[in-house]
Amino acid sequence: MNATMLLLHLLGATVWTGGHLVLAVTILPRVLKGKDVAALHWFEQGYERIGMPALLVQVVTGLWLAWQKLPSLALWFSAEGGPVAQLIQAKLALLGLTALVAAHARFRVIPRLSPATLPLMGWHILAVTGLSVLFVVAGLSFRVRWGL
Ligand code: HEM
């Protein structure tokens, strides 16, 4: 069960983080250069179908994996939980930030998307992409000690 959950978590991570890196590094520069609002809509609509389920999978499997590591909600938010609790808190903080930026983009920026507001949309994409990479770094930190 643990292995299956971890597999689903990693598949979700490849879709979420990988999709955002493709968007930020290859699609966004072209969209900004050509002021091509339609191309961004086209990518977003296609990606949403796999990206949103992937994020949902991340949250469900992530909470499950966190519970296996530390089976107490109180410990998740206390200093006694140690480094594992800190990493769980980091993941939840990243999730909160991602939800804020994504909701702002979805409900405020995308409905009024125009060549003039494309750079603002670009900042939102870069923010969610940066957060998605930090999710991977935090996830890996459960196993890996970063050092020189
Ligand atoms: C888009 C969001 C997320 C991404 C991209 C992501 C990515 C990752 C990655 C790459 C790992 C490393 C797995 C390994 O070392 O084998 C990981 C581990 C982990 N993640 Fe996430 N994660 C996300 C969301 C979450 C959430 C919301 C939680 C809930 C607290 C969470 C909890 C965990 C836990 C507990 C582990 C350790 C699993 C283990 O080593 O057994 N993740 N994550």
Automatic annotation (TrEMBL):
One of its GO terms (cellular component) is membrane. Residues 45-137 form the Copper resistance protein D domain. Keywords: Membrane, Transmembrane, Transmembrane helix. InterPro entries: Cu-R_CopD_dom (IPR008457). The chain crosses the membrane at residues 50-67, 88-109, 121-142. This is Putative copper export protein. It comes from Halomonas fontilapidosi.
